[in-house]
């Protein structure tokens, strides 16, 4: 079976073609037959394409166009033509999976795409204006290029639809619930993959484990997972809630916003920019949203960079602690994402706060840059894992259910 994954963003697109042999999925993620990336953020009206195959063939080129359909046609053409050819024709693809950021209250699991599904994705554009339109455009381009092949929508919010009302509903007026203003959560594909991968490594049933997954990248979120389901998460109605992030503030006192508006210090548009693009690590440090640059500045004695780091760690610890009561204990703590996978100091600092639970980090393992590994000592009752998140493979796994 050949599964194509299309992960369309507002300025980039990632694509993978997987081949699943036999009658079951492999126990660990396979190497894609073909991977393609498109980036049109560097030059106006120019798409940069990069393609790589499992055999080591590479292709890099630029196309002067704003047409996503044209770009997609060229990208997918490299699967069955030229030096990066891995199949004879596109009709050999059995199913196509699309990452869709927001499924709202409608979708608790992945679904085969129909006109009704596309209409629902379109209705949710106001909740994910930077992503759902691109996701929908990717679906429509896929239909145009690939014809009648089955297409599946895999929603980033779906994994969190199992969160109980007590955690999902905000303590505002009940009318908010009727207006669908609830905690949706995001990064669900990553949280689900990391939880399932952790269970695989432990050789235990996911439903028997209590796990906190920490997706720490430019965007950051936690998920509390019990009985195989998400029961709490830090992102909320939007991806702005929760942890301190690269350039997003995370949770703050809403009274600050009222104050800024009442005092006419800024407009609603200004607030949107401040909270999403000028806060977090970038806003506090005044340097960068990149943790690597923050750490380099700390080494040079920059106090604002140190403050940004300290706030980040404090909020991460606090949010991990807030997940524990609903889980009733903890079997595994998981770190993933650019920071989660690469910042050993962040992992160490986060776990030090929970030594009273028995967590003991092995310093050598923690700094070894190993992924999909336990980084605790042998006598640590709670295991800590560094997992390389593979959202594309998780999307492919979801597609396999419909084949």
From TrEMBL:
The active site is at 156 (proton donor/acceptor). PROSITE patterns: ACETATE_KINASE_1 (PS01075), ACETATE_KINASE_2 (PS01076). The record marks 187, 248 as: Transition state stabilizer. It catalyses: acetate + ATP = acetyl phosphate + ADP. Its EC number is 2.7.2.1. Substrate binds at residue 99. ATP binds at residues 14, 215-219, 290-292, 338-342. CDD domains: ASKHA_NBD_AcK_PK. Belongs to the acetokinase family. Keywords: ATP-binding, Cytoplasm, Kinase, Magnesium, Metal-binding, Nucleotide-binding, Transferase. Mg(2+) binds at residues 7, 391. Mg(2+). Can also accept Mn(2+). One of its GO terms (cellular component) is cytoplasm. GO terms for molecular function: acetate kinase activity; ATP binding; magnesium ion binding. This is Acetate kinase. Pathway: Metabolic intermediate biosynthesis; acetyl-CoA biosynthesis; acetyl-CoA from acetate: step 1/2. HAMAP family: Acetate_kinase (MF_00020). It comes from the Bacteria. The gene is ackA. Homodimer. The keyword Hydrolase does not apply. It is found in: Cytoplasm. One of its GO terms (biological process) is acetate metabolic process. Its cofactor is Mg(2+); Mn(2+). The keyword Nucleotide-binding applies.
